């Protein structure tokens, strides 16, 4: 696969540039990338601080994903999505694979086993472009198990052109915001740890500490004791103690039981 732009590539790029901020951009952008990459889903989100993610546009290979997968994502599973949880995105944007940013126990988490794996996606790449408003435009490109993972050459090509793609995403997202073409996003529920704290008290009559609720949320996202400790600025042994106390109070003994108990909160 050559990294040089063909005359047809240039035409596709010019079309995408001309349509930034309009309803035709998504299709032009998809055609631009489809000329170099094969993907089974092509989804464009906007992540706004303190709000539920918006699906701005989507293309999904016919009969490939469960019909309710996007609805379930927006209704609550986004809280466990590593792309949504990613903080400190560079100003120039970030192109990365899910496997490169996922928590250390993500692929054995119940979120992955019960929700993500059901999609039959074997690899996902995300382009995250910060917008002037503080929001993030997120483009997700996924491959199904039947297609197989991206080849190294394809990923290299994507990374090579990442700066141009980020400029396009930023221009599109910014012009949409300036033109006020997007609906006002729905307000998001409180942070996951606060939801866990409140709901466990109200539905189970149990009182968790804030730290135990934070540990519960991180465990659901796929973090190990060590990874959770780093995020919270505590020792691994302290993290273990909080997790042990959490499980004791909830009368459970595994991450799977925790997911089953708290899934209705997502």
Automatic annotation (TrEMBL):
Gene3D superfamilies: Winged helix-like DNA-binding domain superfamily/Winged helix DNA-binding domain. InterPro entries: Sig_transdc_resp-reg_C-effctor, Tscrpt_reg_LuxR_C, WH-like_DNA-bd_sf. PROSITE patterns: HTH_LUXR_2. It comes from the Bacteria. The keyword Chloroplast does not apply. SMART domains: HTH_LUXR. Keywords: DNA-binding, Transcription, Transcription regulation. Signal peptide: none annotated. Residues 201-266 form the HTH luxR-type domain. This is LuxR C-terminal-related transcriptional regulator.
């Amino acid at each position: 696969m050559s990294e040089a732009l063909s005359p047809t590539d240039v035409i596709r790029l010019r079309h995408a540039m001309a349509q930034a901020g309009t309803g035709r951009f998504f299709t032009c952008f998809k055609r631009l990338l489809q000329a170099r990459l094969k993907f089974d889903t092509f989804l464009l989100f906007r992540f706004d601080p303190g709000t539920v993610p918006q699906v701005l546009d989507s293309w999904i290979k016919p009969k490939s994903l469960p019909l309710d997968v996007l609805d379930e994502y927006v209704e609550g599973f986004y809280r466990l999505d590593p792309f949504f949880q990613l903080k400190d995105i560079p100003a120039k944007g970030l192109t990365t694979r899910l496997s490169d940013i996922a928590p250390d126990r993500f692929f054995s988490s119940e979120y992955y086993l019960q929700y993500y794996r059901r999609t039959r996606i074997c690899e996902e790449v995300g382009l995250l472009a910060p917008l002037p408003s503080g929001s993030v435009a997120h483009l997700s490109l996924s491959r199904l198990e039947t297609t197989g993972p991206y080849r190294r050459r394809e990923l290299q090509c994507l990374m090579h052109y990442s700066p141009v793609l980020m400029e396009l995403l930023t221009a599109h997202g910014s012009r949409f915001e300036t033109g006020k073409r997007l609906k006002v996003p729905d307000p998001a529920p409180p942070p996951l740890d606060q939801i866990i704290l409140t709901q466990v008290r109200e539905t189970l009559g149990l009182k968790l500490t804030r730290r135990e609720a934070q540990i519960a949320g991180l465990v659901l996202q796929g973090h190990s004791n060590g990874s959770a400790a780093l995020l919270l600025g505590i020792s691994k042994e302290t993290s273990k103690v909080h997790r042990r106390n959490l499980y004791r109070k909830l009368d459970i003994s595994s991450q799977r039981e925790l997911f089953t108990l708290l899934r209705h909160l997502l």
